[in-house]
Amino acid sequence: EPSASAPGSPSAGGADPGGRGGAGPEDDTGALPLAVGVRPYVYDSPCSQHFLVDSDPERVGPPATEQDAARWAAAYRAVSSGEQRVALTVQGTGRQTVVLEALHVRVITKGAPLAWNDYAMGVGCGGGVGTASFTVDLDAGSPVVGVEHGVRDFPYKVSESDPEVFYVTARTTAHDVRWELALDWSSGTRRGTVRIDSGDGPFRTSADVHRPGWDYPLGGTEWIAREEQRSGRRSRRAGRTAGPDGRPTRRRADRS
């Protein structure tokens, strides 16, 4: 089941009632009875996160840890590659229990995948620990939030002293998708919907369709072409340009 944890200090992310949360007569302030903290980039394992960046390797800094992922992505205008794992920390803000009725996905735009370079945020890692989560197939005609790993589906209950953490993994193999989540809730006679995005706008995830891949080896000082690292051939350095087919071209050896 989703992990329950004490409320921390979620990184960049946003939840907006958007005028959709209803207030009953017993609530003169109309305050939303729940808060949603968002972490837009959660690493399932140290090397699970990939980003697409519209820059050559020599213009891209070293990979980011999960804690720095939002800042790194903003600095390079990076887009999650292939999949994006988001964490939602939901907590009540008042005395009443809040029922989380359902979680939906809303696709804002869907287009052709980005023709950018793929950068891995870690190299040489093992597999991640399986975590109960929800999934979204962004390529579907009408995407829905589904369950995996045996986790029970909604509804859930939260309160001020009993929050929940939900993990949502959205995947695409064929599109560039801007999307957001919508959480339906009720509390007593009140009910509403909270719109959830990254805090800077919709989440954005693009398929990695035959794009040049770059890794940053542990202890390394530059990005290395992924296909060469895997094959064991002599690593080509990052300071080169792309060829006509979009793949990096071989750079001549330095001459003394």
Written description of the protein model:
The chain has 256 residues and is mainly beta. The protein has one domain. The chain is 5% helix and 36% strand. It has 2 helices and 16 strands. It has helices at 69-76, 226-231, and strands spanning 14-16, 34-39, 50-53, 79-81, 83-92, 98-111, 117-120, 133-137, 145-148, 156-158, 164-171, 176-187, 190-197, 203-206, 213-215, 224-225. The strands form 2 sheets. Strands 1, 3, 4, 6, 7, 10, 12, 13, 14, 15 and 16 form an 11-stranded mixed beta sheet that branches. A 5-stranded mixed beta sheet has the order 2-5-11-8-9, with no helix packed on it. A hairpin with a 7-residue loop joins strand 8 and strand 9. The protein is elongated.
Summarize this, please?
With 256 residues, the chain is mostly beta strands. The protein is built from 2 helices and 16 strands.
Number of domains: 1
Give the uncertain stretches in residue-range form.
Answer: 1-12, 18-28, 126-132, 230-256
What structural category do the secondary elements indicate?
Answer: mainly beta
Give the overall pLDDT as a whole number.
80
- In terms of DSSP E residues, the strand content is 35-45%
User: What is the H/E order?
Assistant: EEEHEEEEEEEEEEEEEH
Number of strands: 16
